[in-house]
Design a protein that fits this description.
about 35% helix; alpha/beta; about 525 residues; Methane Monooxygenase Hydroxylase, Chain G, domain 1; 4-stranded mixed sheet; Flavocytochrome C3, Chain A, domain 1; 5-stranded parallel sheet
């Protein structure tokens, strides 16, 4: 890691500092800005986030025949015994009012002919409770409405194209961060009364992922280095249906496609989900992903297919315009053709451990959204609960940051950060190590895992650590590699320790769920490795 003399680094000092620009970050910013100065920092453009790419929708009990209690039951069931009921109750009770606020702020959720909200069904839900916008571009619509308010707010400053290198921390307290201005290569110190991490997940540590390129686990790695506790890192969700075409990006085919009645077919054209679960295509994501993998192995295929040919073409085109357009590039017709799909990494249930007020165990450091683990998702996330999580916990993080903003400005006591020992220069091909890491993690910590493969993978990761961690990278790719390596180690260490199968964590050598020993969270912090 880099060594910096902070006396030579320009400084900024907002009351509240937020890393990220997805739904959690934007929600937090709008709350904190009511009575504090807020700065949002992102390493890319402000719209490059998982929120922007979210297709399916946002789950909330807003229908007359639905209720927060029903939403609670569905979430707990899919979470496989590891959800914190208090956290889920907060999500499902506070969520509807916040969704209504999104509507008031101009989010154009789709409506039926009688102007009622059009709600759809997704796997694991017992009611049609998924709000969606512009057919299958919900995240983009939500982010646009939030961004507009953020850009118009006089108390909010947006700092794009700045890579956050590390948190400024001392004796268990966070004072802000150090960032690299990507274009100029200059460093910037930003001190704040409260810092919020809303940086998303770690999907890019896998070879095949639905996540954008920026999702390299930066927030999780920074928090871990600062001494924060990481929880349930073994639970990584794979989306069952991503486009599998040679040369194509792993484009997500929304859960809502199956919610509207799409069938999964094997290479013989047969529906197969009934062999694996009575809920068939509407089973939870972990069940469908494993079923697809088993079916591919059974038939010797590299993918399965989604078919909507039996559905009303007009409904399909109106409901999924963006998916239709994406498939058109590869000469696939969503209304007629079988769409080749297979699972890909999608979402991280684990992350930085927080309480229900978004507080980490590092003073003045908060976290919300996918980067955090507050107990909402348990061992497996219920479809379309992620945007709601970002909205509810981002709002909570903003409230807590606003309280900290009323206190005096703390001053970081150190003059230098991240000292390293001199070492012999070793040439590192960053692209090669990144590609090797992604392949290794995909083999060892994919949908089905085993102890021997994970042990061998961890030994390789630890070997890479010896020279990757000590490198003074001044490029984004190199800095991301260090964060990806830290996250991959945490995922595999956690998965190796949990000797059972539960939710998104499946082990071929421990295929049963063991409530006696393992119905509990797994926590790691930096002290466990010292």
């Amino acid at each position: 890691m880099l060594e910096l003399d902070l006396r030579r680094v320009p400084s900024l000092g907002p009351d509240v500092l937020i890393c990220g620009t997805g739904i959690a970050a934007l929600s937090a910013a709008l709350v904190a800005a009511e009575n504090a100065s807020v700065m949002l920092v992102t390493k890319s453009s402000s719209q490059e986030s998982n929120t922007f790419y979210a297709q399916g929708g946002i789950a909330a009990a807003v229908a007359p025949d639905d209720s927060p209690e029903a939403h609670l039951r569905d979430t707990l069931a899919v979470g496989c015994g590891l959800c914190d009921e208090a956290a889920v109750r907060k999500l499902v009770t506070e969520g509807p009012a916040l969704v209504q606020k999104l509507i008031e702020w101009g989010t154009p959720f789709d409506r039926s002919k009688n102007d009622e909200l059009h709600l759809t069904l997704e796997g694991g839900h017992g009611h049609r409770r998924i709000l969606h916008a512009n057919g299958d571009a919900t995240g983009r619509a939500i982010e646009k409405s939030l961004h507009q308010r953020v850009h118009d707010h006089p108390n909010i400053t947006l700092l794009e194209n700045h890579f956050v290198i590390d948190l400024l921390h001392k004796d268990g307290v966070c004072y802000g961060l150090v960032a690299l201005e990507i274009k100029s290569g200059r460093f910037l110190k930003i001190e704040a009364k409260a810092t919020i991490l809303a940086t998303g997940g770690l999907g890019q540590i896998y070879r095949e992922s639905t996540n954008p390129d920026v999702t390299t686990g930066d927030g999780m790695a920074m928090a871990f280095r600062a001494g924060a506790t990481m929880e349930d890192m073994e639970f990584v969700q794979f989306h069952p249906t991503t486009l599998y075409v040679a040369g194509a990006r792993r484009f997500l085919i929304s859960e809502a496609v199956r919610g509207e009645g799409a069938h999964l077919l094997n290479t013989k054209g047969e529906r197969f989900m009934a062999r694996y679960d009575e809920r068939e295509e509407l089973a939870p994501r972990d069940v469908v992903s494993r079923a697809i993998v088993d079916e591919m192995q059974r038939t010797g295929a590299t993918n399965v297919f989604l078919s909507l040919a039996h559905l009303d073409p007009k409904m399909v085109l109106e409901r999924f315009p963006n998916i239709r357009q994406a498939l058109k590039q590869y000469h696939l017709d969503l209304t007629k053709d079988r769409i080749p799909v297979r699972p890909a990494c999608h979402y991280t249930m684990g992350g930085i451990r927080t309480d229900l007020e978004a507080r980490t165990d590092v003073g003045r450091l908060l976290a919300a959204g996918e980067v955090a683990a507050c107990g909402i998702h348990g061992a497996n996330r219920l479809a379309s609960n992620s945007l709601l999580d970002g909205l509810v916990m981002g709002t909570e993080a903003g409230k807590q940051a606003l309280k900290l903003a009323q206190e005096p400005q703390p001053t970081f006591p150190d003059k230098k950060v991240t000292p390293i020992l001199p070492r012999e220069e070793i040439p590192i091909d960053v692209d090669d190590v990144r590609a090797s890491l992604k392949s290794l993690d995909s083999r060892a910590a994919g949908i089905v895992r085993d102890g021997e493969t994970m042990t061998n993978a961890l030994q390789m990761l630890d070997f890479w650590q010896n020279y990757v961690y000590s490198e003074e990278f001044a490029t984004v790719k190199g800095l991301e590699l260090q964060n990806m390596l830290a996250c991959a180690q945490l995922v595999i260490r956690s998965a190796l320790k949990r000797e059972e199968s539960r939710g998104a964590h499946q082990r071929s050598d421990f295929p049963q769920t063991d409530d006696t020993r393992w119905k509990r969270h797994l926590d790691f912090n930096r002290r466990d490795f010292e």
